[in-house]
Amino acid sequence: MLSPVLCSDLAALEPEYTEADVISTVEFNQSGEFLATGDRGGRVVIFQREPQGEYNVYSTFQSHEPEFDYLKSLEIEEKINKIRWLPLHNPAHFLLATNDKTIKLWKVSERDKRAEGYNLRDEEGRLKDLSTVTTLQGEYNVYSTFQSHEPEFDYLKSLEIEEKINKIRWLPLHNPAHFLLATNDKTIKLWKVSERDKRAEGYNLRDEEGRLKDLSTVTTLQVPVLRPMDLLVEASPRRVFANGHAYHINSISVNSDCETYLSADDLRINLWHLNITDRSFNIVDLKPENMEDLSEVITVAEFHPHHCHLLAFSSSTGTTRLCDMRARALCDQHAKLFEEAVDPSRRSFFSEIVSSVSDVKFSHSGRYLLTRDYLTVKVWDLNMENKPVETYQVHDYLRTKLCSLYESDCIFDKFECAWNGTDSVIMTGAYNNYFRMFDRASLRDVTLEASREVCKRRAVLQPRRVCVGKKRKETDVSVDSLDFRKKILHTAWHPKENIIAIAASNNLYIFQDRLTPNGHHNTPEIQSAPPKWQTQPNPPTY
Description:
The chain is mainly β. The chain contains two helices and 34 strands. It has a five-stranded mixed β-sheet, with no helix packed on it. Strands 6, 8, 10, 12 and 13 form a five-stranded mixed β-sheet that branches. The radius of gyration is 24 Å and the shape is globular. The two termini are 31 Å apart. Keywords: Repeat, WD repeat.
């Protein structure tokens, strides 16, 4: 089992929530200091980690709005599909966010040093008003909140475009500002998040309230001056990448060259330059001349972490292709094909559906590929295409329930997966708000539950077990009692430390290794003995 961890529940404490509050993507930046989430309402929430390890809200903004494609008479949701951070090169942070149609490059920056920080509870554990928040060391505090996307309407297709944020990706940090990409179904935006501690005063043509003066009253010229001001964290859209996709965007991935990124929809993958918004290059095209001949769709695409010419994409047929952009401009021929033959004895009507790959992640070393289908997680060695080197059963007990899962559309749920920082442990979500972890060295696994009930002060988080027959222990859960409405689709692992983020509906949980008496973190080792998981008080609500 895993070693003890700390649990932070950044969930909405009200039991009632709207569809727009459901989290649709979770992404750490390269350093792990910031964590970005997107939801079906097009909002991006950024959490910052405090010195002692906890995450609090850093910034919130609206990335995408619902649109309507009048040409296709199609609504475009604002839901954020993917977020990707750009490498950090200055104090501002940049990230890409996309919905089904538009990719946006956002800049998140600061104006000043943070005076007190953020913490949503007083000494007695009661929630404070957000306007009175002060910092509690070690937490991920609210840093910035902004609306990334708004709902739109595609009048061409007569289709509404949801504001739901599909993906968020951070860019590498190169200056004090942070940059991230956020996308809904159609539009990708690059955001800059930065801080400012001074404001300009003494304009010649504007008064103190910003209104234009009467030019006849301006008799002297003065030099504007900068005055100190309270901390202001502002998020501004630096780029909007629209009209690049005819179908819903499902993936965005920042290249290791820190200059380009890819976006993928059901049939095409486009390559973008972060400074050019009016054109992209099509590098993969699966659209047949006759759509009746369509046999597969692209489900996810990802750049290699070190080699900027390599990318992998998976399809609904269960295959994963590795492409080399040096070979040709249009990667219509793959360099490698990773596919495992289906056991004829287990073939059924649902075989192709459950084999569809919902997520692909390169290992941090770049040696392995991690793929997630409906029932399993597989690890592939890039040097061996014919079969995975490791296969882990996530919830094999659902094989007898595939018919009912098909009728309820749950069989089409897309679960994500994640590596830990050393590529030694794998994590993925399941139903009933359970998530699974697999230790690659010991081949042991654990099932844990993310819920507000377990996030009490000093509470112990117990491992869970799903049984098919009679329950052996009181804590066992029967497969017939699983709640398929509660599902963990989105997970993320801190790139360097043993901190994980779990999105369950409109709730975000952050778990962290429990500190040992000498102040060090425990290693996430899966042991045979039941673990004791320690929890912290519930931090912020957003």
